[in-house]
Amino acid sequence: MITEDNVKQYWQERYNAQKEKTVGYSGNLEGYRERVKWVGEELGKLNLLGLRVLDYGCGTGMYSHIFDKRKYLGVDITKELLKHTPKGYRYIHRVAPFMGVKIFNAEMIYTNCVLQHNSDDLLRKILQGFKLQEPNYLVFYECIDPWIHNKHVKPRDYQVYDGFVTGAFGIDLVQKEQIKHTFKGEKHSLMIWERL
Fold this sequence. Notes:
By secondary structure, the chain is an alpha/beta fold. It has one domain (7-195): Vaccinia Virus protein VP39 (Rossmann fold). The protein has helices at residues 7-18, 29-45, 79-82, 120-132, 158-169; strands spanning 53-56, 72-76, 90-93, 108-112, 137-143, 173-183, 186-195. Strands 3-2-1-4-5-7-6 form a 7-stranded mixed β-sheet. Strand 4, helix 4 (120-132) and strand 5 (137-143) form a beta-alpha-beta unit. The protein is globular and about 45 Å long.
């Protein structure tokens, strides 16, 4: 489980061991592309793809192409991963896992299988950083399978995430949508909150 003390080391060690394959797809690029396509289709149905998006924990930018490149900013803690991102999109390296200042006028914060790696305390700090960005939407795609729980993944169901979001944002954001999805036998959820 990632804490504030070991977050940089954790992602750096994963990068050192697996290089650009450190995030998300465990070497199964074709399966990962299917997941990217599915997320893009679901967000498209909800008319969320044309918004200014901050992609938190963007890694190699695998999801960047589903968004408008003029309205996209990817953020990651591992500088080396950003060297593998698609050209034409904006990316920045953040040393801290949470954002203590507003860095982008984002209408939506998107994160994909990032929050599930963090301890509850670190998740609270990350969400406080999200609040500073003043988004109209939060979109999380995270593992919710309880049997996956291991040293580096803590699945939480949408009700638990909703509690964390409410704790950070109060009643400013309400859960709008929750779409369950099974990928490679693992249960995931696309969770969306909208500003009132």
